Amino acid sequence: MPLVRIDIKxxxxxxxxxxxxxxxxxxxxxxxxxxxxxxxxxxxxxxEHHFIFDPHYLGISRTDNLVVIQITLSEGRTVDxxxxxxxxxxxxxxxxxxxxxxxxxxxxVEVKKENWSFGHGIAQYAL
Length: 127
Fold this sequence. Notes:
Elements: E1 3-9, H1 16-32, E2 40-46, E3 67-74, H2 79-97, E4 104-111
Parallel strand pairs: 1-2, 3-4
Antiparallel strand pairs: 1-3
């Protein structure tokens, strides 16, 4: 169960954030096998005063089209699976929405399965 948070600068197209989310969900399904309907996303658009980043950190040139993606998911993926996920997300955003590869910032947060409750106050994945 991934929980995906997507942060972007306010975009003139009101459907842009949702389209970004759809591509990320498709990448999660294809790259790491996330099940159908396991789609929980928080989409946030910010003005220039509330979206702050270094445009050159680690020698990567970023623009105002930066997409910050934080994915919280259960632990257990291999490094190769994570690399495939990063590549799949970046390449699909580039191909479909012309977002530069340099403007795709991804952070994975892995948690133990017992750290999820999907409703009813129950830890559904706890053994």
